[in-house]
Amino acid sequence: MTRAAGKIYIVGAGPGDPELITVKAMRRIQEADVILYDRLVNVELLEYAREDAERVYCGKAPGAHAMRQDKINETLIAYARQGKTVVRLKGGDPLVFGRGGEEALELAARDIPYEFIPGVTSAIGASAAAGIPITHRGYAASFACVTGSRCHDDGKPVRWDLLAHSVDTLAIYMGVSQLGEIREQLLMHGKSPSTPVALIENGTTKGQRVITATLEDVHRIAAAMKLTNPALIIVGDVVRVREQLIRAQRQASALSMIG
Ligand code: SAH
């Protein structure tokens, strides 16, 4: 078997705002022969690709099936064997709930060269865009990125019992449809009902919406506000800092109007 001449870059596109991509990722996009991109990737980024670059959508089109993971792997391998330079572009960071590790294992097993290029994960991007410091002195000395999706559970269930006690800020991905259950788990394991929660929909994009609630009422508020995907759930006292920032800004602008 001849060694593949191509290379696969497994790249993070950042959380939504196209300017939040890294310089390295942008350079690889500009050079690529082929770009395979996921649903959460901002398509504006594809404008930077070469005109003759192939653009392959791997996400779920409305009413259609997503490209299956084995088909994605096969496609990557086929392009690499043709000697192509491929950017495998994923939302946020490719290794945070992004299956980048699984794809790399397939490539490594076939001796196909690959490289990871990290991206700003949505927990970091969306919380910053919402004015929520994910750690903050006196409020949070730790944070965890957690999946709220049961699909990720197989073999490794999320330890809500431990998370409720041992981590200050929880950034929960893929949790919109499981919000009621997540809330129950956290309350059952002793998290206070008054713990603040922020729901950040389409974080860092023009369509960003931030909803704040408490753990007690979050499921009702999310339903009333018709929270949709993609959204991130931030649980913890750091959400209070957002309110403090908003208040401080209001006071400062009121004072400056007085002169
Ligand atoms: N690899 C991605 C996560 C993919 S899992 C990353 O590092 O961010 C998909 C989940 O990410 C969504 O269900 C949502 O919880 C979160 N997410 C992705 N983009 C988001 C955005 N712009 N705003 C809020 N949440 C987002």
Can you give a write-up of this model?
By secondary structure, the chain is α/β, with parallel strands linked by helices. It has 2 domains: 111 residues, Cobalt-precorrin-4 Transmethylase, domain 1 (3-Layer(aba) Sandwich); 123 residues, Tetrapyrrole methylase, C-terminal domain (Methyltransferase, Cobalt-precorrin-4 Transmethylase, Domain 2, 2-Layer Sandwich). It is 32% helix and 20% strand. The protein has a 5-stranded parallel sheet, with helices on both faces. A 5-stranded mixed sheet has the order 6-7-10-8-9, sandwiched between helices. The model has no long low-confidence stretch (mean pLDDT 94). The structure holds S-adenosyl-L-homocysteine. S-adenosyl-L-homocysteine binds next to helix 4 and strand 10. The site of S-adenosyl-L-homocysteine has 24 residues, from helix 4 and strand 10.
- Unique ligands: S-adenosyl-L-homocysteine
Helix content: 25-40%
| Rg on CA atoms, Å | 20 Å
Q: What is the helix tally?
A: 8
- CATH superfamily of the largest domain, called what? Tetrapyrrole methylase, C-terminal domain
The CATH topology name of the largest domain reads Methyltransferase, Cobalt-precorrin-4 Transmethylase, Domain 2
Instruction: State the distance separating the first and last CA atoms.
Output: 76 Å
Q: What CATH first level of the largest domain would be assigned?
A: Alpha Beta
| Annotated CATH architecture of the largest domain | 2-Layer Sandwich
Structural class by secondary-structure content: alpha/beta
Molecular shape? globular
- Total domain modules: 2
DSSP strand count = 10
For the largest beta-sheet, the strand count, sense and barrel status come to: 5 strands, parallel
Mean pLDDT: 94
Side by side, the strands of the main sheet go 3-2-4-1-5
